[in-house]
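User: Second chain of the day. Same drill as before.
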Amino acid sequence: MTFQTVSALGSRDVNEDTIYAGSLNGRSLFVVADGLGGHGKGDVASALAVSAFKEVLSDSSHPISVLLPNAFLAAQDAILQEQKVSGCYFQMKTTVCTLAVDNDQLLWGHIGDSRLYAFSHNKIKMRTLDHSVPQMLVLAHDIKEKDIRNHPDRNKLLRVLGVSGDTPKFEISELQKLHKYQAFLLCSDGFWEYILEKEMCTALKKSSSVEEWLQRMREIVEQRGSSTDMDNFSAIAIWV
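Assistant: Same format as last time:
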């Protein structure tokens, strides 16, 4: 596998996204966390989440099918503990999208509206479904998929890490075979908001490397976001 990453401020003063892409004891881990809350607290939440994922997934004595759910729970605990220490109970939350790979086995998970896209033959084979109001409306057939990006409630999330009093309702995929896929894209909503899925596929088809693929997509994102109050945007592009 090869990969390339980007994490940028957009129009904001602070980057509340945290990402990780690398190897831990022979396994590969990719994480995109988009912190919520502002005032310098969203970045703390996303950093705590990514740190927890790295720590849990570094345990080579257990399979990723056991470790990935534990990582979500560990991230939740770390954020709630920091909320108590700092007194910021409502300003420290984060989404998470993650992919763990062990030899030819992989597993992905997410909570919130940071997305994972899986590609095969230059087409999207799967994407995670947002835990958001617009996604719920799509599932209820009240709006169409294309309407999510511009929906007035697009930023209203139904599930995130950092909500006390409840077990975080993350989703974990079944174990998959790596060789069934061509590429993956993990990204925050600040990235996918400005690029259509068909454009991701076109960029993939035209690219000769993962670096070129991500660069093509980034150019679209930055061009469309340049005249807006652009959020932080982060992405990890992976070629199998």
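The chain has a mean pLDDT of 95.

User: Great, on to the next one.
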